[in-house]
Amino acid sequence: MNGQTTSPRYIPCADVAKLVRSALRTAFPGITFSVRSKTYSMGASIDVRWTDGPTVAMVERVAKQFAGATFDGMIDLKTNHDSILAGERVQYEADFVFCTRLHGPDHLRRAAERVT
Q1: DSSP code of 32?
Q2: What are the pLDDT tens digits along the chain (116 aa)?
Q3: How far apart are the first and last CA of the chain?
């Protein structure tokens, strides 16, 4: 190819959110996730929330594979990177994926009973 490389296919943030939602549905059947995308000046992100169920680490293993950037706080640098999706090189618009586990009333009650 004469030393030329093809650019990765760009995937908009809303479409990345759909990929995250689908991957979570497959990995955690029966768990309801809220997956919201946000675009803003100089970036985009996805917020994932759910109540009870899997741990944050478990969900992050699935969801964070769709993040299009990394951040190095030591030098205050965001670095975009390409990813592979179904054998194709892609660039996700969503720079970061944030995962937040909420706790329902039954979960909180059981926890309180354990400490009292």
Answers
A1: -
A2: 555 578 999 999 999 999 999 999 999 999 999 999 999 998 999 999 999 999 999 999 999 999 999 999 999 999 999 999 999 999 999 999 999 999 987 766 777 778 77
A3: 69
Q: How far, in Å, CA of 24 to CA of 48, rounded?
A: 10
Q: Angle at CA 17, nearest 5°, toward 81 and 60?
A: 70
Distance CA 23, CA 39 (A): 21
For CA atoms 73, 74, 79, 82, the dihedral sign is negative
Containing H/E element for 52? Answer: none
What is this structure's pTM? 0.85
